Amino acid sequence: xxxxxxxxxxxxxxxxxxxxxxxxxxxxxxxxxxxxxxxxxxxxxxxxxxxxxxxxxxxxxxxxxxxxxxxxxxxxxxxxxxxxxxxxxxxxxxxxxxxxxxxxxxxxxxxxxxxxxxxxxxxxxxxxxxxxxxxxxxxxxxxxxxxxxxxxxxxxxxxxxxxxxxxxxxxxxxxxxxxxxxxxxxxxxxxxxxxxxxxxxxxxxxxxxxxxxxxxxxxxxxxxxxxxxxxxxxxxxxxxxxxxxxxxxxxxxxxxxxxxxxxxxxxxxxxxxxxxxxxxxxxxxxxxxxxxxxxxxxxxxxxxxxxxxxxxxxxxxxxxxxxxxxxxxxxxxxxxxxxxxxxxxxxxxxxxxxxxxxxxxxxxxxxxxxxxxxxx
Length: 376
Prior knowledge:
Elements: H1 12-22, H2 29-39, H3 42-55, H4 66-78, E1 81-85, H5 93-96, E2 104-109, E3 118-122, H6 129-144, E4 148-151, H7 157-165, E5 170-173, H8 187-195, E6 199-202, H9 214-225, E7 228-231, H10 239-249, E8 253-256, H11 267-274, E9 278-279, H12 283-295, H13 319-328, E10 334-335, H14 336-343, H15 347-359, E11 363-366, E12 370-373
C-alpha cells in the first residue's frame, strides 16, 4: 500500500477557489463536479454562478467570499489541518470511488493512514460491556493485520474501536467542523487519534456545530471510506443501520455480530444477518472476506479529472427547452438518462438545464442518477 500515488496538486489560489465554490449556497458534490465540467475551473464557475442561477429562475444565491475562504484556511492552519482536493494524492482512495464524494475534505493528522486498507466499526452508543470488549478485540487485531479503523468518534462502540486502533492507525469522521469535535468527552481521544498516526476528517466547514441531520451525512462518509463495515451492536432504528444501508448501496461488504434475541441492542445486527450481512464472530471472518478486495488493484486516482458529465460548447438553453425539462420533472424521482431520451434534447443541453435548476434550488438529486423537482 506504499506505492507512489498519482494525482494533481492544487495551487493555493485553486484551493481557495475550490473552497469558495463548495461553500457556496446550493453547491453540493454533484453540482460542484458538473460546474467544473461545464466551466472548466472553480474560478470560472464562481464567475458564472450568478448567470446560471438567473437562467434557472432562482433567487440570487450566497456565493462564499474570498475573505470567508481565507478565514477558514487560517483556522485550519492554526490547528494543523489541511484541505485535500479529490484529485490530489492524499485524498482517501476509497472515498474517491464512492457516489458523489466531497470534492474537498479537511484533514488533521497523518494522511498516510488513508493508504491502509480501511474497515469501519460502528455500533450502539449505550453498548454493553461484551460489545465494547468485542469491538476492541477486532479493532486491535485488524490493526495488527495491517488495516486502519474507521468510525465516528461517538460514545460506546465507536470509542472502543478508535481506542484499540490508535497504535496502528484510526480515522474519525466528524459530523461538524474539525474544530468542534463531538461528543465533548472524547476530546482527548480526538487529540490522540491525530497525534498517533491517525487522522480526523470532515467535509463540513470549520465552526459548524453538528445537527441531527448531519450525522447520516457523516455516516455516508464512514461507509464510503471503507472496504467493509462491521456493526457490533445496533437497535432496530439506529444510525449504525443507516451506515450499514449506505455501505451496501456503495457495494461495500457489511458484517454483523450476532447477539441475544433478548437484547434490544442485537435486534439491528440480527436483522442485518437475516438480510445477508456476513456473520462475524471473530476477526478472521472479516479478514477472509476482505483479502480479495485488498489484493485488487485500486481504481484510477485521476478519475475526477475525467468527469462523466461532459459539457461541450453549446448555446444556452432557451425557455422552450427549459420548460420541456421542467414539465417532464415532478416530485417523483426520474432517471436522467430517461429524461434525455424522452426530451429528445442533446444530453449536454439537458445536463446544463439540470445544473441551472439545481443551483436555483429547484432540483433534488437522488442516488442512482435520479432527479426530481423541489417545490417551495
